[in-house]
Design brief:
- With 82 residues, the chain is mostly helical.
- It contains four helices and two strands.
Length: 82
């Protein structure tokens, strides 16, 4: 699971979109990026379509997600799989 709390370009504000992770300073959910990419949109299209999305933040979110996939699984999770 990705720890969005360590990504500097996103934030979760309880009073904004029920606390969903959004790009900082916006109401644009991070999930919208992944939903659009899954449907075949390019990063450039996403940036064009959504106000508040800029290339630096989008690429930082994608890098953060990719880096989270490289993180080792804690030993306790290996011993007690869910």
């Amino acid at each position: 699971m990705t720890d969005w709390g360590t990504c500097p370009v996103v934030e979760s504000v309880p009073d904004r979109l029920s606390g969903a992770w959004v790009f900082t300073g916006t109401r644009l959910p991070v999930s919208a990026l992944f939903e659009n990419l899954e449907r075949g949109a390019t990063v450039e299209e996403f940036i064009e379509w959504f106000e508040g999305a800029d290339e630096w933040k989008v690429r930082a979110v994608l890098q953060h997600a990719a880096d989270s996939l490289k993180a080792p699984v804690p030993v306790s999770r290996l011993e007690n799989p869910v």
